[in-house]
Amino acid sequence: MKHYLLIILAIVTSNLANAQEVLTAKEAVEIALKNNYDILIAANQAKISEKNAGVANAGMLPTLGATLTKNNNTQNSTQTQADGSQRELNNAKNNSLNYGVALGWTIFDGLGMFARYDQLKELEKQGQTQLKSAIVTKVADVLSAYYNLVQQQQMLTTLDTAVVISKQRLQTADNRFKIGKASKLEVLNAQVDLNTDTTNLIKQKELYANAVTALNELLVRDVTTPCRVEETVSVDHKLILKDLMTLAEKQNPDVQLAIINKRVAELDLKQVKANRYPVVRLNSGYNFSETESSLGFVTQSSSKGFNYGLTATLNIFNGFLQHRNEKVANLQVENTQFLLDKQKQSLNTQLATVYQSYQTNLELKELEAKNEDIARQNLDITLEKFRIGTITTIEFRNAQLNYITARTRHNAARFQAKISEVALKELAGTVTF
């Protein structure tokens, strides 16, 4: 009977685990990556940015278009000739038909088209970075929900164990009462404590069910899907703040987005400066034209042929708007640099704050683990003594409550340590599971 409490825990845990399959953290993340709406939307946005990043969208390719114009009209016409004579014709028909193809190609615009192309490539990177941000954020959310469910499940096991022990206490007290070795008061106290533990267990089942619902929502599946998770929680004890800051500067999605935004603003400035230079455009085409007229010197004509040429335009003065636009673009570049510096500072502040919580939670986790082990041993000994009637019911209840409290605090400390780890890795831009 030395490890009687451990045997009860094993039986309770086994019964709960057999209710349905156990979902691992890795499996939860994989399901979310396939189904989560935020990730799917971000993936489509990234594809849109990829499709937009082409030379045609930047205006670097020629354009070719076909046109056709057909006009028909009927008129009552009167013409006065130079000699004074008149010619009249009712329902005179005048028809015209023009069709052809036209080719246009901007061959120089102050290198603005190249700046636009580079900008589109940066926007493509932006789409990919936003997708990464959505993935990192959602993975962190899933892991937080998962380990919260672990905590609620462990608490459910603890309270279920407390109910089992209280039932055995009630049975023992009742047996002792029947043989005259205990008073009715001891039985009643045992019943009250059992009812209290049962009430706590019922409330905990509600918290557990809500945690299951929250996780299922993130996994985008039926919120009523039963779910059991792994009992063990492995916390990474080897995170170093300096390494995290270095990694975050390279991989944090928010910092990367700020860098991309600065580059986009710089390319905007290049495009604005390109307006100082002439725009040279090649034009070419092949046209067909036919006309018919019932009244006039020429009743029918047609033509066809090839045309080509070059157009150059230069903005000489536009009311100082060019100077104003360049000044605004420069200020936008300056602002994006400020935002980048602000983002880096904010990131380092968050890392330092969360890292301090991480270290504190690691210490608390180790301390609460020892406290739980002591409380378990104490309850194990108390159970033995209670069975042979050498301690009071008050002493037994205190040992039982101390164990529940110690186990609850250990679960909470372990959960907080894991959440701190997840938060640090999310800020560093690399969430693992």
UniProtKB/TrEMBL annotation:
It comes from the Bacteria. It holds the Pfam family OEP. Its main location: membrane. Residues 69-81 have a biased composition (Low complexity). Residues 1-19 form the signal peptide. The keyword Membrane applies. Keywords: Cell outer membrane, Membrane, Signal, Transmembrane, Transmembrane beta strand, Transport. Residues 66-86 are annotated as: Disordered. It is found in: Cell outer membrane. Belongs to the outer membrane factor (OMF) (TC 1.B.17) family. This is TolC family protein. It comes from Flavobacterium cerinum.
